[in-house]
Specification:
This protein has a single domain (about 1-200), classed as 2-Layer Sandwich (Nucleotidyltransferase, domain 5), CATH 3.30.420. A six-stranded mixed beta sheet has the order 5-4-1-2-3-6. Strands 7-8 form a two-stranded antiparallel sheet. The longest helix is centred in the middle third of the chain and has 18 residues, at about 95-110. By secondary structure, the protein is of the alpha/beta class. Helix 4 crosses helix 6 (about 160-175) and helix 5 (about 135-145) runs parallel beside helix 6 (about 160-175). It has helices spanning about 35-45, 75-80, 95-110, 120-125, 135-145, 160-175, and strands at about 1-5, 15-20, 25-30, 50-55, 115-120, 150, 180-185, 190-195. The relative contact order is 0.23. The protein has six helices and eight strands; from the N terminus they run βββαβααβααβαββ. The protein starts with a strand and ends in a 9-residue tail after the last strand.
Length: about 200
Amino acid sequence: MRVVGLDLAGSEKRTTGFCFMEEDMSCRTVPLHATSDILKATLDARPDVVSIDAPLCLPKGRRSLEQRGPPHLRACDRALLKMHIRFFPITLGPMRMLTARGMALKKVLERKGLEVIESFPGSAQDVLGMPRKQEGLEKLRRALIGYGVKGDIRKMAITHDELDGITCAIVGLKYLQNDYTALGDASEGYMILPKVNKSLRST
């Protein structure tokens, strides 16, 4: 199994965390910026799935990102709310740019024959009992090492973008192993999480 995890930035001016991960959880990471570089690195990796941290669909009933007013939330977003997992709605400020870039990237990759899934490293870290990057990069790095990640996770200068890219790749592996939860609605598209612990399910 070969996975690419992308902690996608909203623009080329900011860093995208790229991670290539194999079935034994060995990984190679690199910070990228240009969309052309992201596409090249992803296609060169020949992954079985690409796991992207970016909204990849609009809420049902919303014609475009430019539309004013509701709906603001997708079915997967409402599911996260029920699980008490923090996130930013896709219509909130910079999230519009990220959503547009994510949807465009998905379109190109699918045209190239790759399967693309939406992931959210913050929610995956919550589900797996890991700290988010806001709690400290070293804490997150050590948690990922403890989970079994090998390779570039040992880089002392690894960035928070790369750590979230690694988390996205873990979600991709879980997806390929059929050990995942799909949040959302088929008519919109799903957000993929590692299998959700019962304690995090809504009651």
